[in-house]
Design a protein that fits this description.
The structure holds two protein chains of two kinds. Chain A is mostly beta strands. Chain A contains no helices and eleven strands. Chain A is globular, with a radius of gyration of 13 Å. In chain B, a hairpin with a 2-residue loop joins strand 6 and strand 7. The chains are: A mainly beta, B mainly beta. Chains A and B meet through strand 5 and strand 10 of A and strand 4, strand 5 and strand 10 of B.
Chain lengths: 113, 110
């Protein structure tokens, strides 16, 4: 079955550590996205990529980095510069520029310990 | 500027009721609209994807877009307890990513 796989489901980060969240899709979608979801805040766009080797900052990119070396993969690194990283992170993909909607993964819950 | 707004709820209805969920948006360039259902601690699931104004029906769900008033709605007929979730609306257009509302929490009581 086609879909998006996010791993791990739960992740714990110590202060000062960088951590990487994995996102893989087998839908042959061109575009991929990373969102952060906090209670009462809705979905906020961190980064998005419309094509391999190209990506753009979203509304809250500070303290995050991404890469898009393969069409299927769009990992997100939460760096130590992100001061409040505890949140639910969602990866999504779509055909070009959101045509026919986004498909979301099941999310990664990141907690700072 | 809040581009997509939803009442956070919770909206509580009895089983079998018709549910009306609504969003307003401010960006007149929006052409595409989506409704998602999200269960607690899960990823959002696409329910409806619509283009421009008009109605779209899929089973118990009907999406309605009124671009003149910048108002979008999702109707759920014969609501079930399993419909209890948070419903997210989103709007987007050519060349830019979708903007999501904060979601409305729905409770369907048996």
């Amino acid at each position: 079955d086609g879909g998006i796989t996010q791993s791990p489901k739960y992740l714990f980060r110590k202060e000062g550590q960088n951590v990487t969240l994995s996102c893989e899709q087998n839908l042959n979608h061109d575009a991929m996205y990373w969102y952060r979801q906090d209670p009462g805040q809705g979905l906020r766009l961190i980064y998005y990529s419309q094509i391999v080797n190209d990506f753009q900052k979203g509304d809250i990119a500070e303290g995050y980095s991404v890469s898009r070396e393969k069409k299927e993969s769009f990992p997100l690194t939460v760096t130590s510069a992100q001061k409040n990283p505890t949140a639910f992170y969602l990866c999504a993909s779509s055909r070009t520029q959101g045509a026919y909607g986004y498909t979301f993964g099941s999310g990664t819950r990141l907690t700072v310990v | 500027q809040k581009e997509v707004e939803q009442d956070p709820g919770p909206l509580s209805v009895p089983e079998g009721a018709i549910v009306s969920l609504n969003c307003t948006y401010s960006n007149s360039a929006f052409q595409y609209f989506m409704w998602y259902r999200q269960y607690s601690r899960k990823g959002p699931e696409l329910l409806m994807y619509t283009y421009s104004s008009g109605n779209k029906e899929d089973g118990r769900f009907t999406a309605q877009v009124d671009k003149s008033s910048k108002y979008i709605s999702l109707f759920i007929r014969d609501s079930q307890p399993s419909d209890s979730a948070t419903y997210l609306c989103a709007g987007g257009g050519q060349g830019f990513s979708f903007i999501f509302g904060k979601g409305t929490r729905l409770l369907v009581k048996p």
